[in-house]
Amino acid sequence: NSIDLKDKLFQYAANKSFNIIVDCKKSKNEFSVFYNCNSSKIKVLPLIPNFIFKEIKSIQKISPERFNNLNLKKCFFFPAQFWAHKNHAYLVDAIAYLLKEGIKDYHCIFTGRNRGTLNFIKSKIEKLKVSKNFTIYEYLPDNEVIHLYKECFSVILPTFVGSTSLPLYEAFYFEKSIIYNSSILDEDLKDKVIDINVKDPKDLYRIIKKIENNDIEFSNIKKKAKYYIDNELNEKNLIKKYSIIFDEFYYFLNRYK
Predict the structure, then answer these.
(1) Whole-prediction pTM value?
(2) Could you point out which of 33, 105, 184, 241 has its C-alpha 20 to 30 Å from the C-alpha of 47?
């Protein structure tokens, strides 16, 4: 029922709205096709993470004590709610494979609210006997999330859905490499992530070895990502894009007075 309701809402918006705002070019093309909507009324404005415009300099300096027992330089950070499509199960299988190959020092931190799969993931962790390699938090305050972004080995999102995402942009902003299913990404973002095959848990082993052997390549990926986020999400640029939309609407209203 929720899917039907969403489609009805989107179709109504496509027919009646002055403008549709989406997060990227890929979403624009998909919305135009799926809902037979004139692409000229669809505007692209990227997702805006809270961290980029709030005062974070002071809280970045706080080093949370709860992570003292973890070597964050060997931790994957997976910031996502426990939905099935986020694919937490992939990382459990991938860590189990690393252990099988004798690589025991990598850890994974999950943080996010339960949306239906948390108990399944916990059960899977127990079944594969990888509990020592996982830490799960339902909620973390901003300073601790920022600390993990800055200090972890890599952010990772093996999600099945998400042409863009907030964790993606947050990783870009904090100049942290991010492992992502690039096949679902907008074209402008694909060269700014480390691609992972979400159908093959063994692929994480390949990525780790590649990073360890060629840090320069991944350093360049991070630089491209930071340059992108600084240009796309700077305040002046965003105000300009929103101003264009409101100016068009103001002109439209005044034409018919």
Answers:
(1) 0.90
(2) 33
